[in-house]
From TrEMBL, chain A:
This is ABC transporter ATP-binding protein. Transmembrane segments: none annotated. Belongs to the ABC transporter superfamily. GO terms for molecular function: ATP binding. It comes from the Bacteria. Residues 4-234 form the ABC transporter domain. It comes from Pseudovibrio japonicus. SUPFAM superfamilies: MOP-like, P-loop containing nucleoside triphosphate hydrolases.
TrEMBL record, chain B:
The chain crosses the membrane at residues 12-35, 73-95, 107-129, 135-154, 185-204, 210-229, 241-263. SUPFAM superfamilies: MetI-like. It is found in: Cell inner membrane; Cell membrane. It is a multi-pass membrane protein. This is Spermidine/putrescine ABC transporter permease. CDD domains: TM_PBP2. Belongs to the binding-protein-dependent transport system permease family.
């Protein structure tokens, strides 16, 4: 069942379009991440869903109900703020109880809910402390708890981990995912960290300049990016412009690039002659076949070695698990046809 | 000279100056108020030759001190509250909304303070008279005080409103809070110090204000400052003036200490988390 349906949502700030005709459906209990560079409209979309902004055009449905003009206090969403936004003069317990109080939930139920959440987030020892007496990670958990006690249909996160240090970040990330599954919550999660997005999400929405670039599972985004932006943004990618020569075998297309000719295995024939050709640094095979290149930089990274290689004046990146190539060596590189990805040329 | 020595010298000079500034006038006022009328305190004596509470008792029984006290202490808190209510909308707008010319507007709000108070008072009271605001003199003074001290209250409350964090308002709203609940949880804690400070300043200003109280109020309404000036003006009875000025200052000091304590206890911290 669809939990959130967003149709052609547009948000303009005066002449500036922050979000353009965005459509998205989120399934019940799905964890969807909004990923994109700074200023691409992630927070704007989250504020539109939670009701803090009114869309210029388009509609939002939550559980089949049109909430486009419903104010935030009446929406069945709960927001986890980047800066936590805990009420500083209230104890952890009072912070957690604030929401249920507003909903006039009986004292008994309120206590049950708060205790349940405190238990799940291991906060019971902190219940009588003020927020400024807690560590960053604990504050983060209170903020999550305050949203959870509302038992919302949809929980929204705006870069909840950005104030935590790297180690804690992994831990809280796993915790958020666990809680989301345990409560069966539908979640929309904003981040500009691709690793976070890939690790946590059922699906990722890649945004760029207020437009959707691609909506897909993390695996599909990585292995089958649709645009150059997605290929570049998710993981490392070598992207070259090329021209389609034609289909040499069924499902195998020949593409001419500055570095040489490649055969690309694809089930969807290219729409245009001008394409971008993309491959991941780790899909290159160093061996006897393929075109030659000169190693211009080598960096040992432990479980792989990072090489910068130059062919015909074009440099690109190759990651290899076992190579003895040194700087200045000449190597042969081939890329299996099924590892090559054709991207639509975008203006 | 070493640093610590320099510090010591500076500390001591500061202490001396503070003593001269605060303790000496206060002691003088206390001494003068205790001078017994049987023997005048002449300049050649260090202490008054005879001391008693005669002046205090006399002032209490034979002057309009009681009614002046009552008027002043009814006037000041009412003016403070009224002033706060009048200042709140402007301060809210100045503190919460971004609009072109906001900084200019903030400065303009302070402008009335550069005019000498007596001038403002004379013209303000003439406006009051022209508006026919003369039937209820106490009300006229109250209104005048509330309006006159608006710049202080607006300025202080503007800063307070700027301290309110939008994310606290949003968080409360997101959790389903009504307007009133939002005000209590997000605004009030940040506003509290400002509210106290504004009340205190207007209270003290109103207690000490002479010009308006004199021009609008006399002769039917007497406040402590007008009584004080008449004690000084008519026959320059310095001991009587000393009694009055002590009466004027002591409650203020107590009030300030109480508020200081309130401020400290009311406000554990305003910030939470980082960012
Ligand atoms: N109230 C506003 N008025 C005008 N422009 C705005 C407003 N809010 C956001 N914008 C603009 O809309 C664009 C998208 O902003 P948004 O906050 O959604 O970005 P974001 O993707 O969350 O970025 P970040 O990763 O930096 O948080 C930005 O260019 C921003 O300048
Ligand atoms: Mg943002």
């Amino acid at each position: 069942m669809v939990a959130i349906r967003i149709d052609e949502l547009t948000k303009q700030f005066e002449a500036f379009t922050a979000l353009a005709k965005l459509s998205l459906e989120v399934e019940q209990e799905e964890f969807v991440t909004l990923l994109g560079p700074s200023g691409c409209g992630k927070t704007t979309l989250l504020k539109l869903i939670s009701g803090f902004l009114d869309p210029t055009e388009g509609t939002i449905h939550i559980n089949g109900k049109d909430v486009t003009r419903t104010p935030p206090e009446a929406r069945d969403t709960a927001l986890c703020f980047q800066s936590y936004a805990l009420f500083p003069h209230l104890t952890v317990r009072e912070n957690l109880e604030f929401g249920p109080r507003q909903k006039r939930i009986s004292a008994h139920d309120r206590k049950a809910r708060v205790d349940d959440v405190a238990e799940k987030l291991s906060l019971h020892a902190q219940m009588d402390k003020l927020p400024n007496q807690l560590s960053g990670g604990q504050q983060q958990r209170v903020s999550l708890g305050r949203a959870l006690v509302m038992r919302p249909s949809v929980i929204l996160f705006d870069e909840p981990l950005s104030n935590l240090d790297a180690k804690l970040r992994d831990q809280v990330r796993i915790e958020i995912r666990r809680i989301q599954k345990e409560y069966g919550l539908t979640a929309i999660y904003v981040t500009h960290d691709q690793n976070e997005a890939l690790a946590m999400s059922d699906r990722v929405v890649v945004l760029n300049g207020g437009r959707v670039e691609q909506i897909d599972t993390p695996e599909a985004l990585y292995h089958a990016p649709k645009t150059r932006f997605v290929a570049d943004f998710i993981g490392d990618a070598n992207v070259f412009s090329g021209t389609v020569q034609g289909e040499v075998q069924p499902g195998l297309w020949r593409v001419e690039t500055a570095m040489g000719t490649y055969d690309v295995a694809t089930s969807t024939p290219p729409k245009e002659k001008d394409v971008d050709l993309c491959w991941r640094p780790e899909s290159a095979v160093l061996g006897d076949a393929g075109h030659t290149g000169k190693v211009i930089n080598r960096a040992f990274q432990g479980h792989f070695t990072d090489l910068m290689i130059e062919t015909k004046g074009v440099s690109y990146r190759v990651q290899s698990r076992a190579t003895s190539a040194q700087e200045g060596d000449t190597v042969n590189i081939s890329i299996p046809p099924e590892q090559l990805i054709l991207l639509e040329r975008t203006a | 000279m070493t640093m610590s020595k320099l510090n010591k010298v500076l500390m001591i000079s500061l202490l001396v100056i503070c003593t001269l500034w605060l303790v000496v006038p206060f002691t003088m006022a206390v001494l003068w108020s205790l001078v017994d009328p049987s023997q005048p305190w002449t300049a050649d004596k260090l202490l008054p030759p005879a001391m008693s509470f005669y002046r205090w008792i006399d002032m209490w029984q034979n002057s309009s001190l009681k009614s002046a006290l009552f008027t002043s202490y009814a006037l000041a808190p009412s003016a403070a509250v009224l002033c706060l209510l009048l200042a709140a909308p402007t301060a809210f707008a100045l503190g919460r909304f971004k609009f072109p010319g906001r900084e200019v507007a903030k400065t303009l709000c302070l402008l009335p303070l550069v005019v000498p108070p007596f001038i403002t008072s004379i013209f303000f009271s003439s406006v009051l008279f022209q508006l026919g605001f003369t039937g209820w003199r106490f009300g006229a003074i109250l209104f005048a005080h509330a309006v006159l001290f608006l710049p202080y209250a607006i300025r202080i409350l503007t800063v307070s409103f700027e301290q309110v964090r939008q994310e606290h308002i949003d968080a409360a709203r997101d959790l389903g809070a009504s307007h009133w609940a939002r005000f209590r949880v997000a605004y009030l804690p940040a506003l509290k110090p400002g509210i106290f400070a504004a009340l205190l300043i207007v209270f003290i200003q109103s207690i000490e204000e002479f010009a308006i109280a004199f021009i609008v109020g006399s002769p039917s309404i007497v406040t402590i400052p007008t009584l004080l000036f008449s004690a000084l003006g008519q026959d320059f009875v310095r001991p009587n003036a000393a009694v009055l000025s002590l009466i004027l200052v002591v409650p203020n000091v107590i009030l300030m200490l109480v508020l200081e304590w309130l401020l400290k206890s009311a406000n554990p911290t305003l910030s939470s988390g980082k960012g």
